[in-house]
Write a structure and sequence with these properties.
Layout: E1 2-9, E2 13-15, H1 29-35, E3 39-43, H2 44-50, E4 58-62, E5 73-76, H3 79-90, E6 96-98, H4 102-108, E7 114-120, E8 128-129, E9 138-146, E10 154-161
Parallel strand pairs: 1-6, 1-7, 3-4, 3-6, 4-5
Antiparallel strand pairs: 2-8, 7-10, 9-10
Length: 162
């Protein structure tokens, strides 16, 4: 399965000044649960923000300017190369999760079978946005709404291509 996983605010913000503009306890739990043991594909800026390969997962970084080659971390120059590399390495034995940033999300929208979205229930200031997509191409399922006292509520959504 080729999937996309993202968190964005009501106004589609995913970043500000190269960082995630919120800190919500538990919000990253779904990311970890879904991607553990699988393959995550991310752009250079996203990888640099994290600063290291994600434990328990294979990481493929899409970059034309830098290279990382270490245990569980590989660099390719395009999304197409990432898909080909993953297929060569793991065949259909692992799911692939496109995990940012905005440019990679935009390229992946036409390819993904599923999108796992955490929608933050707030308008948040930022400079990087999740691309608008044609929702009519997907079935939308509300997984659950999370409200932690004193925190911004958020909702887990799953979009499955029709």
């Amino acid at each position: 399965m080729v999937a996309l996983i993202a968190a964005y605010s009501k106004n589609r913000v995913i970043g500000k000044d190269g960082k995630i503009p919120w800190d919500l306890p538990g919000e990253q739990t779904r990311f970890r649960e879904l991607t553990m043991g699988q393959v995550v594909v991310m752009g250079r800026k996203t990888f640099e923000e994290i600063g290291h390969p994600l434990p328990g997962r294979e990481t493929i970084v899409v970059s034309t300017t830098k290279r990382w080659e270490e245990n569980n971390c590989h660099t390719v120059k395009s999304l197409e190369q990432a898909l080909a590399f993953a297929h060569t390495q793991w065949g259909n034995h692992r799911d692939l999760f496109i995990s940012g940033g905005a440019g990679l999300y935009g390229q992946a929208l036409e390819l993904v079978e599923k999108m796992f979205i955490t929608e933050i229930d707030a308008q948040i200031e930022g400079d990087t946005y999740f691309p608008v997509f044609e929702e009519s191409l997907f079935y939308k399922k509300v997984e659950r709404r999370i409200q932690i006292r004193g925190q911004i509520p958020y909702t887990y959504l799953t979009y499955t291509r029709k």
